Amino acid sequence: MPPRALVATLAVALVPLGAGCGLGAGGDQDDVRAVVSSYLDAAAAGNGRLACAFYTDEMRRAATRRARRQDLRNCAAMLSTTVRYRLASLPGNLRTDVQDAIADRDEIDVKLDGENRARATFAMPHAALADVHATLVRTPDGWRIERLAN
User: Fold this and answer.
1) What letters, b where the CB count within 10 A reaches 16 and e where it falls short, cover 56-72?
2) What are phi and psi of 134, to 5 degrees?
3) Contact, 110 vs 33, CB < 8 A?
4) Is residue 26 pLDDT above 80, yes or no?
5) Residue 121, helix vs strand vs coil
6) Exposure on the CB side of residue 3, measured as CA atoms within 13 A
7) What's the domain count of the chain?
8) Domain containing 47: what range?
9) Sorting pLDDT into bands at 50, 70 and 90, what band is 23?
10) pTM here?
11) In the prediction, which pLDDT does 81 show?
12) Residues near 79 by Cβ (< 8 Å), separated by ≥ 6?
C-alpha cells in the first residue's frame, strides 16, 4: 500500500473528542492536542466508533456518506478497518515510525484561530508522507474535528 494512501486514509480517519473547556496548564492548545491525539490513537487502533466521536456532526455525516459509497455501514465501520489495514501494510520500520509518531502528542502542532477555531497539524515521519491538517471547532461538547486534509 503506497504511503500516500495511508496519509489520505489518516486524513479521512483522523481527529477529536471531548477535551474541552480550556482548563489546565496549556489551556485550549492542550485540549485541541488531546482531541487530535485521541482521535489518531482510536483510528490507528481500529476503534471507529471512538474515532468518529471526535468529528463534528456534519463531518460524521459526510464520513458516513463516503463509507456508504464503499459499501460500508457508517463512519465507524470505515474507520474501524481502513487505517489499521493501511498501517499494517507499511514496511516494518516505517510502520513503527508512524505508530511512534501517532503516540507522541508533541508531533501535533496547534494554532488557535480565535476563541472557537483551531488548526492542528500532525507531522508524519519521513518525507514520503504528507502531514495531516485538521480544522477543529469548539462545540458545547468540547473541541471537535470539522475538516481533515493532507
Assistant:
1) beebbeebbeebeeeeb
2) -125, 140
3) yes
4) no
5) strand
6) 16
7) 1
8) 3-149
9) very low
10) 0.80
11) 86
12) 13, 42, 43, 46, 47, 48, 51, 52, 63
